[in-house]
Task: inverse folding
């Protein structure tokens, strides 16, 4: 067991996502203050299985940059996505970077809708052939839309798909299965409040199914995972009318709800990340508030397969 802290130039340093390779090396990404103005860089760090620091790479564009999602493949290539600001406006664009195992940049891609508005990537996944998938949101003329992009192993765009529900829609989590079906989750505005929205695309980017979850109040999807049978698991938080709770849902490969689980603590609680093991056990993590103060605490839950 170990833990590691990293303090950069004395400003805010924020870890946003983590990935682990087949030998137990740990990779984290986020952003770090570089001492300048504007001063955030996309920072990626590698630790070995014992927690010893191996390397770090900072990506410094013309303004603020940050990592939000990270993935690693079986060859040790590392993939990071997040945001950057370009040189022509002050808005965010998608930023996706591929590093090889020696931390050299293989390729980097920015995506800008071209409307002078924010485009921000949150989740990333990679398949066994090195195709890379990212999701987040792109701002249209008035509202945010889900935007999912598939790149091939050389960083060339294969397809991109926007989902527009007519109001603000925000992709946050992404997963890919062995058949290269792609799953994304997040939230959309239904005209009154926000609901979970989970979409399955096939390998060509065609929609297979989409499922919304509408609870009592606002519902926000954050994390998604898929098992070897094509079952899909999403987590986030759902308002119970007073506070927010963890809400975790299992869908079968056809998008039918198998089960849903709510975890209700003392006050506000919410899921952020999710994983499933080879036995079908499900792990979710996020935050809760305890009964003695108003601060956030980690909360991790294991659900057994059934």
Result:
């Amino acid at each position: 067991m170990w833990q590691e802290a990293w303090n950069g130039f004395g400003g805010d340093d924020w870890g946003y996502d983590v990935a682990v390779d087949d030998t137990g090396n740990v990779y984290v990404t986020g952003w770090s203050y570089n001492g300048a103005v504007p001063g955030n860089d996309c920072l990626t760090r590698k630790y070995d299985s014992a927690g010893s620091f191996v390397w770090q790479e900072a990506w410094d564009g013309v303004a603020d940059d940050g990592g939000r999602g990270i993935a690693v493949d079986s060859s040790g290539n590392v993939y990071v996505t997040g945001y950057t600001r370009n040189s022509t406006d002050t808005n965010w664009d998608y930023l996706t970077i591929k590093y090889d195992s020696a931390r050299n940049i293989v390729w980097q891609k920015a995506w800008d809708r071209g409307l002078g508005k924010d485009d921000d990537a949150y989740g990333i996944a990679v398949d066994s052939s090195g195709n890379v998938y990212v999701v987040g949101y792109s701002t249209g003329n008035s509202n945010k839309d889900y935007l999912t992009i598939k790149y091939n192993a050389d960083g060339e765009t294969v397809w991109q798909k926007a989902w527009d529900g007519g109001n603000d829609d925000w992709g946050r989590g992404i997963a890919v299965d062995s058949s290269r079906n792609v799953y994304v989750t997040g939230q959309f505005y239904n005209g009154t409040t926000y609901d979970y929205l989970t979409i399955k695309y096939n390998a060509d980017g065609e929609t297979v199914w989409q499922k919304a979850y509408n609870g009592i109040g606002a519902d926000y999807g954050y994390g998604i995972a898929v098992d070897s049978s094509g079952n899909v698991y999403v987590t986030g938080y759902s308002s119970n009318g007073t506070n927010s709770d963890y809400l975790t849902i299992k869908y079968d490969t056809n998008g039918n709800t198998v089960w849903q689980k709510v975890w209700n603590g003392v006050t506000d609680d919410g899921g952020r990340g999710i994983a499933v093991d080879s036995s079908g056990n499900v792990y979710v993590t996020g935050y809760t508030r305890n009964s003695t103060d108003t601060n956030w605490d980690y909360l991790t839950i294991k659900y057994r397969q059934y």
